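hey so i finally got around to running the thing on that chain from the lab meeting. sorry it took forever, my laptop kept dying and i had to restart like 3 times. anyway pasting the input first so we r on the same page abt which one it is
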Amino acid sequence: MPEKRFDYSKVEKDYAEILEAILTYNSYINGTIKSEEPKTYIESIFTKDSISTSYKGDPPPGDEIGIRELFHHLGDSPQDFIGFLNQTRDRDTVYIPSAIARKFRVKDSNKLIAEERFFTKMVFHLPILTHDRQKAFVSLDYLCGGWCGEGWYFILEKTKGKWKVVKYEGTWQA
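ok and heres what got predicted. didnt touch it at all, straight out
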């Protein structure tokens, strides 16, 4: 039997609502992206993280997320474990939802005009959802130059049909 691929189109609405919740939750991020002067944009493609399944005490290398960290924040059911791996396994290109692109400055960094190359960009990592699509883990990188930037992760829960940030924490700073 062929492996079942994760269908990202089924969760595009959730992705849009999750990004909207993050962009409106944090006043710094919201102010930066909505300013009158277009100096910041959102990268048009999600970054996909790898999940480290190592259970050693060492933190996962690079952009990998530790499976224990996901279990801690989102749940540890067998369906979630398989779902986390399926969501990040495929290397398909997943674009920022059109609902976000219509509302915020979303650009493809490979197609910028000369002066836009110096703009600050926000790079969202692909949201990782629980099997019941009630919790999500999302990383966000804010890149403002070669030695300038910071990153956060966000935990969101869907309450009464609406995504809400329940926790966020800084992950890195340059």
